[in-house]
Amino acid sequence: METVDMTSVSLKRPHCEDGEANLDEIKRQKISEESSKTADGSDLKIDTVTGKSKKSLHEDTKDEIIPNEEGEEQENEELEESDDDGDAESFADMMKHGLTERDVGITKFVSSHKGFSGILKERYSDFVVHEIGKDGRVSHLDDFTVPVDNEDPSEEVFTVLSDEDKQRLEELQLFKNKETSVAIEVIEDTKEKRTVIHQAVKSLFPGLETKTEDRDGKKYIVAYHAAGKKALANPRKHSWPKSRGNYCHFVLYKENKDTMDAINVLSKFLRVKPNIFSYMGTKDKRAITVQEIAVLRITAQRLAHLNKCLMNFKLGNFSYKSHPLKLGELQGNHFTVVLRNITGTDEQVQQAMQSLKEIGFINYYGMQRFGTTAVPTYQIGRAILQNNWNEVMDLILKPRPGAEKGYLVKCREEWARTKDPAAALKKLPVKRCVEGQLLRGLSKYGMKNIISAFGIIPRNNRLMYIHSYQSYVWNNTVSKRIEEYGLKAVPGDLVLKGATAVHIEEADVEDYTIHDVVMPLPGFDVIYPKHKIGDAYKEMLTADNLDINNMRHKIRDYSLSGAYRKIIIRPQNVNWEVVVYDDPKIPLFNTDLDKLEEKPLPVLPKEGKFRALKMEFSLPPSTYATMAIREVLKMDTRASSRVRLARGSAAGEEKMAAIKVGRQLVARDPDHCDIPYYVSEFVEREIGNDRNSLTKLGMLIEELSENKRQLEEQVLTVSSEVPKRIQNALKNAEDSNKTLSQLLEEETLLSESIDNHLLKAQPWMEALDVLISQIEEMERHLAYLKWISRIEELSDNIQQYLMTNNVPEAATTLASMAELDIKLQESSCSHLLSFVRSTVQFWHKILKDKLSSDFEEILTQLHWPFIGPPQSQVFGLAAPGSAPDVYNNLETLFSQLLKLQTSDELITKPKQLPEKYSLPSSPPIILPMQIMLNPLQKRFRYHFTGNRQTNVLSKPEWYLTQVLMWIGNHTKFLDEKIQPILDKAGYSVNARLEFSRALVMLILEKLATDIPCLLYDDNLLCHLVDEVLLFERELYTVHGYLSTFPSCMHILSEETCFQRWLTVERKFALQKMDSMLSSETAWISQYKDISDVDEMKVPGCAETFMTLLFVITDRYKNLPTASRKLQFLELQKDLVDDFRIRLTQVMKEETRASLGFRYCAILNAVNYIATVLSDWADNVFFLQLQQAALEVCADSNALSKLQLGQLASMESSVFDDMINLLERLKHDMLTRQVDHVFREVKDAARLYRKERWLSLPSQAEQAVMSLSSTACPMLLTLRDRLLQLEQQLCHSLFKIFWQMLVEKVDMFIYQEIILANYFNEGGAAQLQFDMSRNLFPLFSHYCKRPENYFKHIKEACIILNLNIGSALLLKDVLESASENGTILNPNQPSATAALNELGVYKLAQQDVEILLNLKTNWPNTGK
């Protein structure tokens, strides 16, 4: 259970009338240190809130989160560092560098009672959490029974297997050994017994199947894997009854374990994966917690069986359901908390708890939200939001005061000294911490890309920092809000209506209390209070260099949307009781398990040494229970303060206990005297505020005097023994001193003897060194002679083999000699190297000449090379009977030539092209393939070099096509005859690719020769590039050539050639653009007669231009380097910009006819190009180019950190600049069109503006309402222009156009017609008829509810057409709301509510008052 002999700690506070002074006094007090010992003697750190011991600071944050755990993040800057090593200071030393409550804005209390102190979590059983489900039911463990189900196995299933059988089955299940099955002997061979064993294996070891076998007359149950590793730990689908829910729900009761640890233990015992468990929230470790868990297809019977073998766990309340549990579904948690050794009177406790129940507490974010080290998490969050990534890196990695793991300190020191992430990372044995993750990212992405490096840290941990900063701002502004306005709702505060926040108006302030008020966490999707606190938000963010109006971050993950949080939380179901006790180790109430086991309630004395407060309350999710307890105790919850207070309380209690029993107490800290404090505590405890208790003084004085006498006697006893002990100690010291002197004398003599011996041995050592040198010299000479002997031996062997015509063995021996040559390359013996190389060369030439001659003869018999196509090849048919012999000889000679490959590479240096072409390295062509290629190389050089008629610069397609034909002609032979030989010889060479590579090298040599001759002839160069691109495409697609081999693109990528290629591409592209823009069909859509295809109404020039860009992309996408591709990309962007400029020039010529066909065609073209470029931006090819551009810019520092961050996060694309310019041009052109149409509408509306609205007949006076004649010109103009532009603009452009036009028409009619006239009843009705029956329907073809786009007109018509009674009521409401901001009649609705009820949302109160004054049909009321 728990360590009962652990020193308890309490929370003591000095008494002070003023709570604020109290806080200041606490902050000024020193932090004292204390360590306690466990039973095994290990050092423990004291957690001063919980009163528990800790071995590592890094456990403190998690255990200190007492509140409702759901909705809270694990606010620990280090990622679960598990080991306990490190030369750490005490907990109190570390906390000297921590935060105070004032640092994070926690400064206010809501209650006026006097605080007191107490011990929280002296035992973990003093803190009990019961989960509250989404149905409002509190989870309790009150039933161990298992649901009855005929499908469940018998209880014998869990005991029939022995421990040894279970061990073997588990190893089989987890693939821990090489066995494929496990056999279990059936001792009692009955069918029932075998059935139980079958059920036991299948139930306890998912993934295993069983069968019965007879072996030597005995029955065995054999277990084996059903479906390999995929079946491991998966629920057995076929064994689960269909009538039963898939999920077994149960209540988990756990002690001193957090939820994830508990799940891992259960999964281990059940032999399943943890991810089949689900729950609604995680629970604290140092507590007793009760929560609901669901598990997929595990029977209640199996779960209940775990109660027999698990410690600190109990499972019960089983039921089967068809759904799992989901995180966050709970309503909250119910807490039962015991504060031991409280100092407050019953009256103080009553006041504190009554205040908590009726008022509640400030919903601050607790101290654990901001980290436990000297660098608060909110500072890192602020740096992230400021985009100051260097500061983020520095704050996380720099050395910091306070205690840390030893390896973390070394890591930070290494970082500060070297700024080398790899070196600092080596200091970390635990790489999962934040520092380790960041250093790993910096090692991977470099110091110039901190954003990507920081992105390696898990997302939840990164978001923790910015959430901490939001909490920091919220705490500070809430404290200012309470200081400024107190505990009442005021105008300008925010309250929630549903999920939407609205401001409290002056008229509504009495409808709300402080419990309704919320405050925003800063973000882009929240609104702020309309009083001083709204300005306080802005000032605080501005001081941190943040813009309150722009909380969107360049990196989407770090954009703050914001949220709303209640200022005051009032706990529910609050109950409390003060109890007394003597033994701090006994429980003060019964848990669920105690009740199930029918343990009696703890017997408490009527009068005890200590008093405790037992309190119960329920909290919603995302609420800190520490803040509720802070409000009760009026305590500072920071850890450093609690350490000091706890030490004082613990020491005081121990001394008091010692006095009571008359035993001696040795002071823990000799350098610090707390006697005055102990005396005051003692007097306060024994006497208190009751004057009648003064009668006890005589008895107390006598008792204390007796204790003093006993202590003096003990001191005298000790004093008489001390001299004897000192004498013995001095004698022992003298003896030790003598012994040490003797040892020193012996050491001196031994040292002198050794020096003399070394001096005598010096000549011997020198002579030995000379002999060793001579021996080494002889060994080198001997080794030299052995090498020569070995070479001569191999040479003699080759000679003998050749004399006996044993060519294969000669070739093998030469290969061995070539390997010797390679081994000797690092030798400094130049003559030896020359000897072996000349020997290899001599025999290589002899063997190569002989084998080459025979090989060429075989090739001739096969009619090699094949000039015709594959179907006409007739190799080896001159003598059909001898074909097998020919192919056997081919294989033999080919294999023997392969053996000469090593020596050939040593002797023959392959021809290399100049380095400027940057060809990739590739191995030499294998020797037999060189011989096979000789006739083709001769043909190529004969026809395509020198003065031959076939060697023409303007016809590169001749030699390119010839090479492709050769490759195609020989493919079949190479695959069928040569490839098997290579495979048999163990060569990982593809014969067809080797053949192609050799021929391509001929092409490269040819191109390297020809390109300088045609470099400045644009037509010839363009033709060459076209042909090369066609050649490459066929080479790759048809013949499977590899991109890692040298290719023609490497030649074209040479700097001079490439720049000329770019120039030619640009020249011809510009010519094409001139041609397409001057064409008669430039502005006519190619698909104008096909409505489905012509949705974007793309003019021909735009279609042709984008096709041109696509062709250019296809031409350069196979370039070997990213830098060359990026240069082509810049060319494309230049062409887009040039085309945009040309379109702009043409547009300016058409400005006067902004509604004309050509102007609209230009607008469609701009829109189409921008749309296509946006689509291309998401193409994989251009995304790869974006990454390449990022790497280039990062190396050259060409872009700002912000731009690099945008590229790295893929928020921008390579075409963004072009798209933005095109979008701007599109907007300008649309604006011109809208302005043009609007001017025409205004001109047509002149008569309508002068309509006699004041004297029009009412609706009752007219038989049928009809459109005003003066409105016809305006509406006809609108209709005609809309129809015209609908035909000429694409759908997306036309939608933008009519919405922009509607906005201008709405304001024009509202301001120039409605507000400029007075209306009688008939005028108002006529206006509404004209608008709702004529104007709005013009746009009904484009949207379902056009009136929603004419908000001003629509709402003005509502106001003007109100009947007299409604108008008078509305006028009274508006006038009442305007007078001093108060409501005259409490039952009368607010102005906003009244307007909303009428359907008015857009118009302000002042606008409605103006409209009401435009009505002329008011009755004469005498006002």
Helices and strands in order:
Elements: H1 19-28, E1 36-37, E2 43-47, E3 52-54, H2 60-64, H3 91-95, E4 119-120, E5 127-132, H4 163-173, E6 181-185, H5 191-204, E7 208-215, E8 218-225, E9 247-255, H6 259-270, E10 277-279, E11 288-296, H7 300-305, E12 313-321, E13 332-340, H8 346-358, E14 361-362, H9 377-385, H10 389-397, H11 406-418, H12 421-426, H13 434-445, H14 450-454, H15 459-485, E15 494-497, E16 500-503, E17 517-521, H16 532-543, E18 563-566, E19 568-569, E20 572-581, H17 592-596, E21 610-619, H18 625-633, H19 639-661, H20 675-686, H21 697-803, H22 807-823, H23 830-861, H24 883-899, H25 901-907, H26 927-944, H27 956-985, H28 991-1014, H29 1018-1037, H30 1048-1052, H31 1055-1078, H32 1100-1116, H33 1122-1149, H34 1157-1177, H35 1180-1196, H36 1201-1208, H37 1216-1244, H38 1246-1249, H39 1272-1288, H40 1291-1314, H41 1321-1335, H42 1351-1360, H43 1364-1378, H44 1391-1398, H45 1405-1414
